[in-house]
Amino acid sequence: MYHYLDNAATTAIRPAALDVMVPLLSEGYGNPSGAHRMARQANRVLDDARDTIASVVGAEPGRIVFTGGGTEADNLAISGVLEARGGVAVCSAIEHHAVLDPVVHHRGRVVPVHRSGLVDLERLAAALDDPALQGRVSIVSIMAANNETGVIQPISEIVALVREHAPEALIHTDAVQALCWLDVAAIGAQVDLLSISAHKFGGPKGVGALMVGERAELSPLLKGGGQERGRRGGTHNVAGIAAMAVAAAETVAERPGQVPRVAALRNRLADGIAAELDGVIETGVVPDEAGHPDRTGKTANICHLCFEGIESEALLFLLEQDDIMASAASSCSSGAMVPSHVLAAMGFTRSLAFGSLRLSLGYRSVDADVDAVLASVPAAVRRLRGQG
Ligand code: PLP
Predict the structure, then answer these.
(1) What is the pTM of this model?
(2) pLDDT-derived band of residue 1, with 50, 70 and 90 as boundaries?
């Protein structure tokens, strides 16, 4: 028995997605690039999956490039566009490393965010207007929702701003954390490129897709057999792609019910911890006029907290003893703790960033998971603070 509160890292495969994979691996295993009947059958599976994914992200089927996950989709968007068009990439400071690292690698511009986790739109406009960059910005990449805090970016506003200040630039959004909780078709209809990853919504790991709009020219990262209309070489992961489509369709169909259900669980989690402990900051949350936390700017599933006076590693250890699986954003690199770049960009001190905890819910989360966390976290934090 365990309580899994790390669904933003990955979530359990949906049974219907698993069911579609096995026969495709054991029986329908033809290579879709081939010329015989089994190849054609595999190709039809791909076509159906492409139709489904296209409707989920608000695009025509021909606009979908299947990839080996979210990291590849993000890398393909940034590096593929820069290779095809030249110029400079611009992104926000809280992007996932799958965007941030290629942007930095290509000497792009990284725009700051506010304490709220929202991109500083004035600084974004200033970067696009910068005489040093003007006319050379090829791609602007701003994520739909952040993987650590759940903060949702105002994509419509960002699209309008980019179109005004850099009309030639393509707009990419990393929607890897958004698909379960936001209307990704509406977002996809506004941007030029959009990334998703199957394992975040109940599909298998190592499969994803990049939506490539009609304005976007793109060079392949993986050069080879010319698959995906020359945009991504490599034999297709047919079973994984089919399972991704099943998971995506199920996720979108369930979304209207899951969002309020999961938000209620998350609110009980966050409110319950805040009621028990002092010195807790919930990231990306602003009090409304009555002083209650307003979480409408975050995805429904993420409760992200910073505790004063503790270290997340020790907290995670105690939580695991209570069979609670959660995560902290700080990571250990070459033996030294590195605070989360997201929290650093939001202006959190190192010590607060080291005391962060992300509890992320998913489609299978239930009240018992919240009860278990509420029975464990306050006591563990008090113990680490030497108070209990
Ligand atoms: N982008 C975001 C926002 C993510 O949360 C993740 C995964 O953690 C990725 C990209 C990378 O996706 P994948 O694990 O499929 O490579």
Answers:
(1) 0.97
(2) confident
Instruction: Kindly report each contact of residues 337-342 with a partner whose C-beta sits within 8 Å and lies 24 or more positions away, as own/partner.
Output: 337/313, 340/148, 341/93, 341/94, 341/97, 341/100, 342/93, 342/94, 342/117, 342/146, 342/148, 342/149
Can you name the CATH fold of 3-8+255-384?
A: Aspartate Aminotransferase, domain 1 (3.90.1150)
Q: What percent of the chain has pLDDT over 90?
A: 94
146 alpha carbon – ligand 1 mean position (Å): 10
Contact 110, 104 (CB under 8 A): yes
Mode of pairing for the β-strands spanning 302-307 and 336-338 = unpaired
- SS3 state at 121: helix
Instruction: Tell me the two tokens of residue 310.
Output: 């503790």
The verdict on the CB of residue 174 being under 6 Å from ligand 1 is: yes
8 Å CB contact between 220 and 231: yes
- Read off the pLDDT of each residue in 194-207 and give the average, rounded to a whole number: 98
15-251 placed in CATH 3.80.30.20 = no
What's the 328 CA to ligand 1 centre distance in angstroms?
16
3-state SS of 292-330 is CEECCCECCCEEEEEECCCCHHHHHHHHHHCCEECECCC
| Rg of the chain over all Cα atoms, to the nearest angstrom | 21
Measured distance CA(7)–CA(239) in Å, rounded? 22
* pLDDT digits 0-9 by tens, 112-138: 999 999 999 999 999 999 999 878 999
Mutation test residue for ligand 1: of 13, 151, 176, the one with most atoms within 8 Å of CB = 176
- In 3D space, the residue among 59, 60, 32 whose CA is nearest the CA of residue 45 turns out to be 32
C-alpha dihedral sign at 344, 348, 349, 352? negative
Distance CA 256, CA 266 (A): 16
* Domain positions in the chain: 3-8+255-384, 15-251
**Beta partners for residue 67, in sequence order:** 208
User: What distance in angstroms lies between residue 199's CA and the mean position of ligand 1's atoms?
Assistant: 9
